[in-house]
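Good morning C.,

I know you're traveling, so I'll keep this short. The sequence:
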Amino acid sequence: MQDTSKQYDGVISTCRSLFMNKMKDYGSAWRILRLPSLTDQIFIKAQRIRGLQQNNERKVDEGEVSEFIGIINYCTMALIQLEKGVVEQPDLSLEDAITLYDDKIANTKQLMMDKNHDYGEAWRDMRVSSLTDLILQKLLRVKQIEDNAGKTIVSEGIDANYQDMINYSVFALIHLESKG
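The tokens, ready to paste straight into the viewer:
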């Protein structure tokens, strides 16, 4: 499991770097996005990945990797929005945004490590296409929870679903990196 932790950190380092550079370009404009908007952005990326996996022809020269990175970063933004709430104007400095990003990722990684221990790294035997399908399933669950005004009866909340999507995306990127 030590390899998993290092591989996870490597993937997140790439995602974090992109997040930082986009913050430098755009500031925290994403802070105005409501959760359903973030969920829809993630959905678009997951649908594109599924399309790439099913279709032989590509019309845009970006593959699955950039889309999984986008899912990780949008899910992290969603976790921050859940904590901080939506604002009318960008309100986070680069330093504050990175602190929040790191906090959400640290919690999500710990969840992964706990589940990974209990499941015996079963994800290593999964296909990237299965991880994509699980992300899409989680997105449909989140949309239903959003339609239910955030209420669940016996199920995990929105935050747990975003965390799972981050972790599935990290696993997919580890798989894709090992093939490359």
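Safe travels,
E.
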